Amino acid sequence: MSATGAGAADGPDLVRLTAAQMAAAVAAGEVSAAELARAHLDRIAETDLHVHAFLHVAGEQAMAAAREVDRRRAAGEPLGPLAGVPLALKDVFTTADMPTTCASRILAGWQPPYDATVTARLRAAGVVILGKTNMDEFAMGSSTENSAFGPSRNPWDLSRVPGGSSGGSAAAVAAYQAPLAIGTDTGGSIRQPAAVCGLVGVKPTYGGSSRYGLVAFASSLDTPGPLARTVLDAALLHEAISGHDRLDSTSLDAPVPPVVAAARRPDVTGLRVGVVAELSGEGYAPGVLARFREAVDLLDSLGAKVTEVSCPHFRYALPAYYLIAPSECSSNLARFDGMRYGLRVGDDGQASAEEVMSRTRAAGFGPEVKRRIMLGTYALSSGYYDAYYGKAQQVRTLVIRDFTAAFEQVDVLVSPTTPTTAFPIGERADDPMAMYLADLCTIPSNLAGNAALSVPCGLAPEDGLPTGLQVMAPPLADDRVYQVAAAVEAALDQRRGHPLLARASALDRAVLGEQEEGR
Amino acid sequence: MSATAAGRAAVPFEDAVRRYEPVIGLETHVELGTASKMFCGCPVTFGAAPNSAVCPVCLGLPGSLPVINRAAIEYTIRIGLALNCTIASWCRFARKNYFYPDMPKNYQISQYDEPLCTDGWLEVEAGGRRWRVGIERVHLEEDTGKSLHVGGVTGRIHGADYSLVDYNRAGIPLVEVVTRPIAGAGALAPAVARAYVTELRDLMRSLGVSDVRMDQGSLRCDVNTSVAPAGAPWGTRTETKNVNSLRSVERAVRYEIERQAGVLDAGSRVIQETRHFHEDTGMTTPGRSKEEAQDYRYFPEPDLVPVAPPPEWIAEIRAALPELPAARRARLQALWGLPDADMAALRNAGALDLMERTVAAGAPPGQARNWWLAELARRANEAGTDLTALPVTPEQVARVIELVASGALTHRLARQVIDGVLAGEGSPDEVVAARGLAVVGGQAALAAAVDEAIAANPDVAAKVREGKLAAAGVLVGAVMRATGGRADAARARDLILERLAG
What we know:
heterodimer, A: alpha/beta, 18 helices, B: Arc Repressor Mutant, subunit A, 3 domains, three-stranded antiparallel β-sheet, 15 strands
């Protein structure tokens, strides 16, 4: 038997390997990158009708990229730690050879002339991009229901949302369509879908991964990051996309934290872990809280020093976020006006440029995007700026101070990642406030720009759906969240005897035709 | 009300400024001549093929991000220091949000409440006295693209058949210099406005930060004007745009004073509005009114980090500042010994550089001044052009002066030489040769005339041989008579003494 166990694996089994195993198998010549790409493209063809994780599958480009990795291997050229591994890319990153739509009608079919830095780094690492994944329009939402092209579905229960906004990326990884995916996290858009799909999802320190070519939602918050089925896979991807980028002024010129080493060191002995008092209690599902408490107990039993920490201003984080993010989005999305690219509506030769802009935006943006543009436009208006945007920035400072004070007492903070498990499609679609609460626990780290991760911590007893443990660390201490997650992952896998995701059976039933109508 | 306002007669200027006190203010945009644009690596060009100097960043494509051009910050600090401003130790860019097709992102990256330079001044000369114009702020922003509206009567977007946009200009670094209100200039307000823009232009040019061509739009001026009865609080101001020459600055202020005085005389109120200046008529007409005024929803640009120029860098830039125009003028005036009126005339004619080069080529300042301000100014005037556009170099003028001083040319001949140079016949020496204007130029011809004069005046020659050198003047006179005044007297004298030397 080979070191990876992949030697004899055929297509269906290949897709269940971890990214680390796939890379090792490619490097060892046990499997070709082309075989891996083909296996995943087949899996997508087989399952995406049910999951709808992808907006665009780039089969030809993926096969070409895979064959290039195989050629380089054959030529004896050095390969990176993820060379030949397939990946699903959120459709918010520009790609010079695939459309980029942000799941919006206003950008339907738009073909960017350039690669995002994340895209370019993935290509340079020999990662094989399978296609572009579904999302909430312009990353605004927590369910992918705001996609102009229809929602993605949660592989654990196809009647439920996969979270959002990076829901397509999460669904793809949970459905074994790709071992890795890139998402973006503005208020929890990586961690929340990771939690409800039973995955590892990481929001790196703001500035740790480049935003160049990431179509902006909220510039001061947007952060690209990895989604994966294991902590180590997430760390490998994290490392591949990180590091200073001179094309992004807010990119940090600092060494990449040693996340891969941390993911390989599942040891929390003596680590000071703070439980955020404000992120639990009313509004949280009992099963979510139960699994969270078990995870905290687990950390305690593994040798961590667990204490409770208060972050009193976190209760204002959500309202502050819903002023700052819409304000920035109202400006960032102004460029979509039908003048230069994308959709143009009402250009009948009579209408003025202003009218065409207005008609294009009315037809091109979905209701949630319009809601946030209006919120932001209002919050920035003369006479209201100080009361809304200005005040929200003050709250942001207070949230940062809470973190700073907390990290003087503890090394990491923990909380549930989301208050509930995956909710049914349609349940919150008409209730924006209920939808916004999905990001209650994740938003503070976005406001502070620090590192945060979600790792699976079991299934909620009441619905049998995954829950996530959130781990937060100071800016540029990303390695700490991996270290804690690796310990939790190792202990839970050992306790269960298998990875959590092995329990997700809804999709396989669907593929096998056992899924009944009207579920 | 606006209909009657439009029909209201303007008050003659002298009458207007006798009864009303104007207050003016200027907002000047200067395109910086950096190699690349404000936030990307595209070249700063003028006149290139439309949309040939663009990239994802200056086109504002989704996902693109700005990166600050360090040279633009340096240029702006240079300008701020030259305008005696305080340079901010920490400042930010802001987004100015409004929709317009030539704005790629539908927001302009500019500076709002945290400009890079604040609180300076610039001294200008107008009406025979000096005015210290307060500078409120100097800030940095990106230029927009350029719209071309095809069809329609106004050349503006409304009524056009279609519009084209060239984004080559989008993202070119633009500095905005805003003055404090200038009050108390009275009838000189238009002249002060012009003098300010002139001085600012010269300053920018000397700093090497821009080519400051008003005709090409690399220097653009908005003029704020208000009038109020003497002693009353300041009136409502208008902002006049499209002022594209120094002369227009003066005319626009003058027209607005006359117009606003007419509005007030009729018992109406001046409307705060943007107005457009028309070069052809010298008048202004209303543009966007206050009702349609934009709320720009400024907020700090989250894609950029704050600018915090280190004090050592500012000190370095300060130390490297070139001599500024006012200091240079003072130095040159002292050096040349010219009166104020001559300096003003040279400056107004744009002839300071010409003058300086002429003197540097060896000409005495007084004579250089005479040539440029009298003789050549007249030629320029006749040709309907500027002194700087005359096809004669300062070195050539200096050569002509030298030829006159040496006696090789008389003034009358010198004017003919200049005619030849201006006509493209070559250098002064070439013209002298070609037109035969030399004062008996050939050595042989002069020698023959000298020998003739010695032979014809043996007594005088003997006196010179005895050492009475003054007597040589008689022989020189004879040579000059014999050559019809076209001999070089000094050379003739030298030759005579040489022949008669023991």
